[in-house]
Structures are given as structure tokens and as C-alpha cells.
Amino acid sequence: MRRALQTVAVVTLLLVAGCSGPSGQTTTTAPDADPASPTMTDGSTPDPASDRPTAAQTTGGPATVDGPANDSAPDATAYPPGVSADGVVNATALVDAHRSSVVSTGATMRTTTRVNGSVNGTVIRIRGNETARLAPGAARLRWTAGATTTRGNQSNVLDERYWANESVLVSRVATADGNSTVNVRNRSATIERVVVSAAAKARILTPTLSNVDYDIANVTERDGRRVTTLVARNGTYSGRRPVTTYDATVTVAASGRVLSLDRTWTTTNTRYHDEYVWTAATPVEKPDWVPTNVTATP
Predict the structure, then answer these.
(1) Which region ranges are annotated with the description Disordered (predicted)?
(2) Is the model more confident about 294 or about 134?
(3) Closest CA to 163 of 141, 148, 185
(4) 3-state class of 1 per DSSP?
(5) Single pTM value for the model
(6) Which residues of 128-167 are buried (b: 16+ CB within 10 A; e: fewer)?
(7) What is the pLDDT of residues 242-270, one digit of tens each?
(8) How would you write 37-92 as a 3-class SS string?
(9) Residue 175 has what pLDDT?
(10) Per-residue confidence at 17, pLDDT binned at 50, 70, 90?
(11) DSSP secondary structure, 99-139, as one string
């Protein structure tokens, strides 16, 4: 039973880390959604190291550092990596720059998810929130994920919390009876990917930036930082899940660090909305529920 609970916690962690949205998978078992699974959106097995930048990506270049000094280039026509006057021209380059910045300097990421719809006359409602605090160098992570899913008169609550240091990942999963289970796992290559994904959300950003064309709404100065605002162009969505309407707005610093993502899309009977906001790193303290002497399971 202990091993089964550990597996469930880690699978849930993988799903929340980056398999949601109209790219074909969802973290919340929403109506009209394909079954969730811990695989890439193209069906392939995730590369355990894909969310950890290489040494070349994380050292020595302004593109990996987020801050006014690097986001205030004098050339007003300069855009973030992967972006030109025509919009997003290389989603991979933009996501790589964002991920490198998040790992190098750390980040606080907050997400809200709202789903309203119906299946065969049954009303479906989902309300979810997520917060991830990643220390510089991805040395530590503190992550909470919560959601309430209502189907007709029945409701299910998700309450999961995670903390990682350089060697282990500790999970706390609340159960339906009001209790909770705490498990510890070694920080393996797979867990390493999850830790970075929790804050960077590369697997959210990649399809979001690839499956629709974007126009540049404006380039402004905010707190000494140059920020480019991208808006999805109507009628250009080409993702694998059929949608009837799709809107997205992305703000990006000159370094390539994504500052916010706001999406709304609809299917025949359902409306989805999620919002992601990245701000500066904050201290990642060990929560009270983590055992005093953390030891990984064999």
C-alpha cells in the first residue's frame, strides 16, 4: 500500500507539472478532456532531463538572467528570444530562455484554473489553484496544488503539497477521510524534471506558443524592464483538441522569461480559463509537515 500511494502521488505530480490545457491533456479530469497520462503531448515518453537546462544555457549570458539590467536594451525593436515583429517565430527558443531564467534565478509561479461545463446534462465545475516556489539553481522547491471538482451534487477535493531539497522530494497527499500520507523519494532524474517543471511549466508554454499565431500588442517599460505583450490571433488555433473559441495573452521580458499567461477556450459544452503568473523568487522554507530527519525510500 505504501508503494502504491507513493506511485499515485508522483503520477499526480507529473500531471500537474505540465500536462494540461487545450493541447490534448488536462490535470483536472475536466469534461471534454482526453484521459490524462504522464506522457508528452505527442504521446512520447518524457525525457527526464528535458526540463533541466544544460550548463551552456545556465551560465554567462544575459538571456538566462531576469532583471531590469538585462531587459532594458536600448534597441526598442529588440524582442525576446524566438520573437520578432511578426510574433512568435520560434516557440522552442522562447521556452528554453524562459526555463533557463526560472532555473538560474528561481521563481514564484501561481496558477488559477476555472472550468464550467456539462456532460449529458450533468453540471461540471472545477476550481483549482497552484503555487510553486523554486529556489535559484532549482536547489529547493515548495509546491502546493489544490482543486475542487463538482459533478452534479458530488464534489472531490485535491490537496497535495510537495517540498524538495537537493536530495529528496517529500509529498503530502490528503485523503478523502481527512487524513494525509507523507512519502519521501530520492531526487532522481525523473523527479529532477518534475521539480523544474513545477515552476517553469514548459509543457504548458510550448503548445500554447506553438498551436496559435500571435501578434505583438505592445512593447512597454515596466519597472525598468522591457515587456512584450503577445495576443493570440483569431482563427489561427491549430491544436489537437477541437475548440470553438480560443484566446490567449502572454507577457514576456526581454530575457525571454514569461511573466504571465492568460488563456480562455471553449468546446461545445465547456468553458476553460487558466492564468499563470511568474514573479521573483521567494525563500523556500521547509514546511512543518516534512519529517525532521528526511530519509528517502529505497
Answers:
(1) 19-81
(2) 134
(3) 141
(4) coil
(5) 0.78
(6) bebbbbbbeebebbbbbbebebbbeeeeeebebbbbbbee
(7) 899 999 999 999 999 999 999 999 999 99
(8) CCCCCCCCCCCCCCCCCCHHHHCCCHHHCCCCCCCCCCCCCCCCCCEECCEECCHH
(9) 82
(10) very low
(11) HHHHHHH-EEEEEEEEEEEEETTEEEEEEEEEEEEE-GGG-
- The pLDDT value given to residue 270: 94
Q: What DSSP character marks residue 27? A: S
Is residue 221 helix, strand or coil? strand
Would you call 297 helix, strand, or coil by DSSP? coil
Distance CA 209, CA 140 (A): 28
For residues 228-250, give the mean pLDDT: 93
- For residue 40, the number of C-alpha atoms closer than 13 Å in the C-beta half-sphere is 13
Residues found in the chain: 298
Place of cell 515518453: 45
pLDDT of residue 267: 92
Distance of alpha carbon 29 from alpha carbon 35, whole angstroms: 7
Beta bridge partners of 130: 111, 145
Residue 33: is its pLDDT beyond 50?
A: no
Contacts 24+ apart (CB under 8 A), 1-4: 2/183
Q: What is the rounded CA–CA span in Å between residue 281 and residue 142?
A: 11
Residue 49 confidence (pLDDT) above 50 = no
Q: Shortest CA distance to 114 belongs to which of 158, 75, 148?
A: 148
What is the percent of the chain where pLDDT is above 70?
73
- Tell which phi-psi region holds residue 216, choosing left (phi > 0), alpha (psi between -120 and 50) or beta: beta
